[in-house]
């Protein structure tokens, strides 16, 4: 049954994220220092982030998009690279808005 | 002059603001979202008994989806499911037991109570840091222009990531070991269909906890009924999820595809997908509850009970918030957080945590998570499989067989049974 | 210069109304009522120009009590606010007569504004007709769809997008009605003391006639097209199967060539191709050596 999208719903990840409201702020509230990531062997953030915002790049770095962030904190909790992630909350009133949380 | 700054208008913060405002203190309640509850997500059940004293008859007006009158615990393997199902009509009438609700609704409602009591709610404002003078917290910095706010007492109710508690050194910066990640799907389903599939009527609801559905990653699944939607999701150990390199939404997809769950969610459409961290370290990994000038409440303090059969958090947040608000004045006057700590120690908030301090380790242990669901399911399947013309094998033989198949030694079973007895005594 | 008045007509609504994925029912959440990006841009332009003139800035919103939160935020930015109460129902709002709405908004303003700003179109209905009705009502010029708006002496210099990426720069004489896009400008944030002061402030409600719907909406629901009727197939299932597969019909049997040597096989292929018109006459003499 694992990973069988046709088993129940073949919902694309983008469609899943489209159900959530994000009031995107101008300032990126999470900044990834890709130079630090290049020396990271686990890249735990890539699978752990529930919003799937971390993409490994071909040169061993990490490409990150802050716009659809749940602000859950998973990435900085699992990150083992010292200083790879600068994590703050988005500016007041911005970011994710849950209605059925 | 502001007497108390409460950071975070979740259940803990609003409860604290409510009690402090009722005590005649000048309270400012800061919320970083556009409205209270907009940043919050949880499994789905609030146990409101803690509100009886402060908001009598709260159940008449709280934004409830359904009252939980049926509680099921399911042990799953890939092909089997064993359910312990309990229902009580007592839970469907005042004073009720637990209810399903959405945090956007519930937190807004509770914050409204604090505002009615005189607290000043300022939304869309992030508390970015503490103002500390001579080792004492004297206020917070916010991200608004001219945003410094001073008060003799700060109550940190800023949630699981509490940067205020971290800045004050009360909470370690990272602690993936003691955190779980919860992901939830809210699935739209017509009310009548929910009533029919779950055997409930009117505002009765169901709470289903599932074990053994997370590919061996310590954690569990849940399914709650709302008025015209279901909340389905998993809560898994962050450390182990990361190590397994599994994506959380795949676990939810697994759960929804399980033969015991699929008929419940068939035809339901995704309404919202949410994720949040949960502090599940238990008593031994709580934050320090105070520092001069600041009290820590709710998730920020790690007050969340995930003890297998009990999964509670909002009530602990409210309980700790009420205590912080109630004792705000004496903490300000004496400059000592002792009244707050004593109140928590004297109430269910710390007593439940202390009593169940061993639960997180036991519940998230490898055997409970990966072996016992299979063992129990195999045992039951053996008992009820008619083996004619062979004679019935006998329960003890079946137990031995199931234990062997699932790699459990009977002495481990015994030891865990005793440990469980000790933890849940 | 004295006693100038800048007015912003801003629409405040739930920008992400929920559509139930099963029933199509629309739910608007009063908690998430907010100004759209272009409405916020209009307010920011209003505050900026107002302070440059040393003039009052008045923000007028037609809507229900759910607008009061966002209006208080505007209040804490130093503008005056006013709310024109409307009927709450979504269906009624869909049918709002925009000319009547413009009339009541102008009545709510009270004075004679030097500049009226609004968003280029509302986020939820988006006809973009309101600025024109307001300009007509006030008898002043209009400049819709602006991406920039600067003061130049007594006039405004504005810019707007044209087709094919061209821009149009205009000198707009005052008084005027301008509608702006959310381009390169964001609403400033209120200071914490101002927010605290405005948190419990009263939002004045304009005492003007509430515009009713222009047309009567009988109902609004998700579009559910009826299924298309297809005629039942004729003939027995055996006949249909034969027609689909072409079995039992006369057809050219496959040609068996060989086993033969390669040159002969090639000749046979070429001959087949030539016979079926895939090779021209000129090439048929070609043989494999």
Summarize the structure.
The complex is a heterotrimer of chains A (101), B (425) and C (289). Chain A is of the alpha+beta class and 101 residues long.
Question: Can you give a write-up of this model?
Answer:
Chain A has helices spanning 13-17, 34-37, 44-48, 74-78, and strands spanning 21-23, 30-32, 54-56, 62-64, 85-87, 95-97. Chain A is α+β, with helices and mostly antiparallel strands. Chain A has a single domain, classed as 2-Layer Sandwich (Alpha-Beta Plaits), CATH 3.30.70.20. Chain A is globular, with a radius of gyration of 15 Å. Residues 1-8 of chain A have low confidence and may be disordered. With 425 residues, chain B is of the alpha+beta class. Chain B folds into 3 domains: 4-65 and 101-171 and 287-356, FAD/NAD(P)-binding domain (3-Layer(bba) Sandwich); 176-279, 2-Layer Sandwich (D-Amino Acid Oxidase, Chain A, domain 2), CATH 3.30.9; 365-423. Chain B is built from 15 helices and 20 strands. Chain B has helices spanning 11-22, 103-116, 163-167, 191-198, 238-244, 248-257, 262-265, 314-326, 328-334, 338-345, 348-355, 359-363, 366-384, 395-405, 410-423; strands at 4-7, 27-30, 45-47, 66-76, 81-87, 98-100, 120-122, 127-133, 136-142, 149-150, 153-156, 179-188, 204-211, 219-225, 229-237, 269-279, 290-291, 294-296, 305-307, 310-312. The longest helix of chain B has 19 residues, at 366-384. The radius of gyration of chain B is 23 Å and the shape is globular. Chain B starts with a strand and ends with a helix. Chain C folds into 2 domains: 5-198, 3-Layer(aba) Sandwich (Rossmann fold); 254-289, no CATH class. Chain C is 28% helix and 22% strand. In chain C, helix 4 crosses helix 5 (130-138). The longest helix of chain C has 17 residues, at 37-53. The mean pLDDT of chain C is 85. Classes of the chains: A alpha+beta (101), B alpha+beta (425), C alpha/beta (289). Chains in contact: A-B, A-C, B-C. Chains A and B meet through helix 1, helix 3, helix 4 and strand 6 of A and strand 12, helix 5, helix 6 and strand 16 of B.
């Amino acid at each position: 049954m694992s990973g069988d999208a046709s088993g129940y719903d073949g919902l694309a990840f983008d469609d899943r994220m489209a159900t959530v409201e994000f009031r995107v702020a101008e300032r990126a509230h999470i900044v990834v220092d890709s130079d630090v990531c290049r020396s990271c062997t686990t890249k735990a953030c890539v699978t752990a982030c529930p919003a799937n915002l971390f993409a490994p790049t071909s040169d061993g770095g990490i490409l990150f998009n802050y716009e659809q962030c749940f602000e859950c904190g998973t990435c900085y909790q699992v990150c083992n690279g010292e200083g790879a992630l600068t994590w703050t909350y988005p500016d007041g009133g911005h970011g994710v808005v849950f209605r059925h949380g | 002059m502001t007497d108390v700054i409460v950071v975070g208008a979740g259940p803990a913060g609003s409860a604290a603001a409510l009690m402090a405002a009722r005590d005649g203190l000048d309270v400012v309640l800061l919320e970083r979202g556009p409205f209270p509850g907009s940043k919050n997500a949880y499994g789905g059940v609030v146990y409101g008994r803690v509100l009886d004293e402060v908001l009598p008859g709260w159940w008449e007006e709280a934004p409830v989806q359904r009252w939980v009158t049926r509680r099921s615990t399911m042990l799953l393997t890939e092909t089997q499911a064993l359910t312990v199902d309990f229902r009580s009509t007592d839970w469907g009438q005042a004073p009720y037991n637990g209810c399903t609700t959405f945090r956007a609704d519930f937190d807004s409602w509770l914050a409204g109570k604090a505002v009615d009591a005189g607290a000043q709610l300022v939304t869309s404002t992030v508390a970015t840091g503490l103002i500390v003078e001579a080792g004492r917290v004297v206020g917070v910095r916010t991200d608004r222009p001219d945003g410094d706010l001073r008060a003799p007492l700060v109550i940190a109710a800023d949630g699981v990531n509490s940067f205020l508690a971290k800045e004050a050194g009360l909470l370690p910066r990272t602690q993936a070991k003691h955190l779980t990640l919860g992901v939830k799907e809210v699935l739209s389903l017509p009310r009548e269909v929910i009533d029919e599939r779950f055997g409930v009527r009117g505002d009765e609801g169901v709470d289903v906890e599932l074990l053994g559905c997370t590919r061996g990653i310590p954690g569990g699944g849940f399914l709650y009924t709302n008025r015209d939607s279901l909340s389905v999701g998993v809560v898994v150990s962050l450390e182990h999820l990361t190590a397994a390199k599994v994506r959380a939404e795949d676990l939810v997809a697994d759960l929804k595809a399980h033969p015991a769950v699929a008929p419940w969610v068939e035809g339901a459409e995704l309404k919202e997908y949410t994720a949040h961290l949960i502090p599940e370290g238990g008593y031994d990994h709580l934050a320090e509850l105070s520092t001069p000038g600041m009290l820590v409440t709710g998730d920020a303090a790690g007050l969340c009970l995930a003890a297998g059969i009990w999964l509670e958090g909002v009530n602990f947040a409210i309980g700790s918030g009420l205590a912080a608000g109630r004792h705000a004045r004496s903490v300000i006057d004496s400059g000592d957080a002792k009244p707050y700590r004593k109140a928590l120690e004297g109430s269910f908030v710390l007593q439940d945590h202390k009593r169940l301090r061993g639960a997180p380790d036991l519940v998230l242990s490898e055997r409970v998570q990966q072996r016992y669901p299979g063992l129990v399911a195999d045992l039951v399947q053996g008992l009820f499989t008619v083996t004619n013309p062979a004679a019935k094998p006998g329960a003890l033989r079946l137990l031995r067989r199931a234990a062997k198949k699932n790699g459990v030694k009977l002495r481990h079973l015994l030891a865990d049974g005793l440990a469980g007895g000790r933890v849940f005594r | 210069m004295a006693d100038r008045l800048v007015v912003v007509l801003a629409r405040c609504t739930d920008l992400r109304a929920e559509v139930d994925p099963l029933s199509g029912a629309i739910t608007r959440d009063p908690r998430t009522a907010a100004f759209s990006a272009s409405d916020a841009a209009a307010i920011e332009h209003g505050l900026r120009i107002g302070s440059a003139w040393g003039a009052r800035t008045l923000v007028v919103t037609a809507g229900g009590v759910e607008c009061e939160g966002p209006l208080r935020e505007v209040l804490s930015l130093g503008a005056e606010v006013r709310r024109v109460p409307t009927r709450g129902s979504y269906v009624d709002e869909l049918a709002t007569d925009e000319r009547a709405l413009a009339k009541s908004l102008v009545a709510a303003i009270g004075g004679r504004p030097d500049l009226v700003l609004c968003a280029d179109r509302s986020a939820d209905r988006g006809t973009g007709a309101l600025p024109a009705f307001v300009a007509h009502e006030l008898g002043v010029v209009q400049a819709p769809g602006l991406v920039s708006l600067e003061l130049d002496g007594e006039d405004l210099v504005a810019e707007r997008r044209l087709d094919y990426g061209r821009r149009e720069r205009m000198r707009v004489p005052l008084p005027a009605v301008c509608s702006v896009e959310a381009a390169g400008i964001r609403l400033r944030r209120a200071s914490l003391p101002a927010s605290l002061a405005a948190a419990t402030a009263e939002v004045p409600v304009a005492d003007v006639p509430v515009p009713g719907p222009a047309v009567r909406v009988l109902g609004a629901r998700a579009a559910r097209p009826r299924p298309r009727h297809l005629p039942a197939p004729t003939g027995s299932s055996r006949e249909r199967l034969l027609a689909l597969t072409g079995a039992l019909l006369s057809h050219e049997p496959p040609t068996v060539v060989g086993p033969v040597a390669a040159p002969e096989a090639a000749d046979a292929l070429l001959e087949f191709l030539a016979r079926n018109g895939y090779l021209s006459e000129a090439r048929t003499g070609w043989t494999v050596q």
